[in-house]
Specification:
The complex is a heterodimer of chains A (about 475) and B (about 70).
Chain A (H helix, E strand, L loop, with lengths): L6 H15 L4 E12 L5 E9 L2 E10 L1 H15 L8 E11 L3 E9 L1 H21 L5 H4 L8 E6 L4 H11 L8 E6 L7 H14 L6 E5 L14 H9 L4 E4 L8 H5 L2 E3 L2 H161 L1 H6 L4 E4 L2 E2 L11 E6 L2 E6 L4
Parallel strand pairs in A: 3-5, 6-7, 6-8, 8-9, 9-10
Antiparallel strand pairs in A: 1-2, 1-4, 2-3, 4-5, 11-12, 11-13, 13-14
Helix pairs in contact in A: 2-3, 5-9, 6-7
Chain B lengths: L7 H16 L5 H23 L3 H11 L1
Helix pairs in contact in B: 1-2
Classes of the chains: A alpha/beta (about 475), B mainly alpha (about 70).
Amino acid sequence: MEQKLTLFELNERVKDTLNEAFPVSVWVVAEISELKENRNGHCYLELVEKRGEEIVARARATIWSYTYRIIKSYFESTTRQRLSCDIKVLVKALVEFHPLYGFSLNIKDIDPAYTLGDMLIYRREIIERLKSEGVFEMNKELALPTVPQNIAIISSKTAAGYQDFINQLEMNQRGFKFYPVLFEAYMQGSTAAPSMISALEKIFNCSDFFDAVAIIRGGGATADLSSFDNYSLAYHVAQFPLPVITGIGHEKDDTIIDMVAHTRLKTPTAVAAFFIDGAERFYDTLLTHQETLIRSCGEILGEKKLQLEKNTDNLQRRVKDFVSVKNNQLLKTGNLLQQRVNRYAFQKKYELNNIGYNLHSKLSVWNMRQVSLLNKYNEVMTITVKEKMAGKEIKIGQLRERLKGNFARVLKKEQERINGFENTIRLLDPVNVLKRGYTLTLKEGKIIKSVSQVEKEEIIETHFSDGKVKSRIINK
Amino acid sequence: MSLKKITYNEAIAEIEEVLEKIENEELDVDELAEKVKRVSILLKICKDKLFSTNEQVEQILKEMEE
């Protein structure tokens, strides 16, 4: 029969054997698959080793609170990463076997350099992957708008940097207007990467509106940057259609996000300054152009003005000369004309005089001739007239005599006629008629010539040569 | 002639083009007046965009928050 042991005894033997085998602590490489912090400050972990996806080894581990405090801060300050699951670590551990609790490792120390190295490898792998997929440079190749004003911000409202960032943009000295819109996300911890991706997707839905994306986060002692090495997040950022500017507040090496982003800055303040600066530079360009414009125009106008003045002077001068020349010409011609006219007038006067004399002498001659002719005629005429007159005188005498005779005869005839008329008149004179026994009968002052003009009993007047009587008609 | 929707780049490009023309003395005095006016307008649009509140943008932002 083999020796019988109690369980306790067995475990004790195992414990001793282990203690012998591992008298001092050993450095172990493992991956943290679970990590819990106790109320007392102790840390309980599960360590594993994976080959591919397969777990090939597993062990429990503890870090007592005193040690944990030290290890934790040391680790995090060196690696800029929290002690958390899914990271590989190099730890110094004491192998322990407790009869009751079994095998466990008591971690005494940690070498963050290993994790760093591992992280580096991990990161390098991600970078290679992104490069091979052709997306690594994509965001950097985007053109940043001249003055980004509409900015999508991925940050946390309570994050240290966010409020300052907003204030900086709003209170900028020049008064540039910016339109920041917050898309909230967790900026650390295991949920950071997925929440940032979700924020990016929201932004994508209104990417037309924005000019750029800013991922900002205040720096701090616990700067857990592991989320910013996340492959999926990096992939989204690299491919994002808007330029991404990062300012996640750390001094050390770039995270992968920093590498794929369009522009990497250190802090949210720097990001704000970046945008303001962009606007500032553009504004300066505007002002410069404005000045250039004013200056150039001023010059050109000045030039043109000078030209105009020169031309005006030229014109004035030339016109003056021209007028003066023409004036002289005119004077000269005037004088010439005057001379010629004078000469001409003189000439003609002289000719006229000559003609005058000629005419005068010729006229005199003609005159004399005419006078003598006239005298001759005169004589002839006088003689002829005298003869004619004598003849006529005799005739007149004769006529006078005839006239006298006729006149006496006519006179006598007329005298006899008149006498005749006198007789007639004497006979016809109503007084003489009345004397011969005729009477004039009147009715009411009017002479009546007919019986019919009177009626019986009417009064009539009868005029005699020596008076008148009134009668009444007795009978007709 | 001038659209409100012009971008900074387009505006600057146009301004620089005009300035170049002026410096090369390619413009006569009448064209000059016209171009200067245009550039002034562009400068103003850019300045407004930089400094004044853009109502349209504010409106969109408001809608986004809903």
